[in-house]
Amino acid sequence: xxxxxxxxxxxxxxxxxxxxxxxxxxxxxxxxxxxxxxxxxxxxxxxxxxxxxxxxxxxxxxxxxxxxxxxxxxxxxxxxxxxxxxxxxxxxxxxxxxxxxxxxxxxxxxxxxxxxxxxxxxxxxxxxxxxxxxxxxxxxxxxxxxxxxxxxxxxxxxxxxxxxxxxxxxxxxxxxxxxxxxxxxxxxxxxxxxxxxxxxxxxxxxxxxxxxxxxxxxxxxxxxxxxxxxxxxxxxxxxxxxxxxxxxxxxxxxxxxxxxxxxxxxxxxxxxxxxxxxxx
Length: 280
What we know:
single chain; isomerase; metal-binding; EC 5.3.1.17; seven-stranded antiparallel β-sheet; globular
């Protein structure tokens, strides 16, 4: 089995002023998360956040510890959030088998030793998108469907950001230590997410863009509000968002994205807003 785990280091607003496009992409963009029967992980020094992808095709794929963790098993000191963005699949957690279908989530708390992923149909494999953070205690494993999510509708057709936010792994739905995950679906004809822009200096975030139609792309905006930058992204790619950075995307078509957060608190509304007219 192929396990690929890389490390990304934190950077300051001053440091990034000299970055080229390629340096920006190397530091923040996660270009490929899904490979047949492989585990792809990126360990970020922002809040020790791990982003990953597992796509079982011809076999079961276990989640094993990597060198960065110095742990006997992956969840020895961590919690894990999973959202399936592919075909139907299962996750076995210490012997308990849970069905996880398209756009459904699974939370696994600290201390679970065996986590094994599989697809129900190799011709339409599951794609398990993972976020993991350090945890101070263990909370129960729980599957979360879209019907069980806290759902919020924001934006408007007139401002091109009419969207549905599905809060799947958040403290209003189930207990977690610090991890929060959700999924935002832009309605047809809408291209903007997360406007008006904001930062939340007490938390970092990772964005995963999917359901981007073939031949289309998303321009992810980041940086300090007074000095923004952008990264062009394709379907099923993720980007690390530093806590001092805005995070917003504009697509050439509507799309869906998964947001994962970790840091100082579990307050979803803890944001430092920036007026659109103040962006530079």
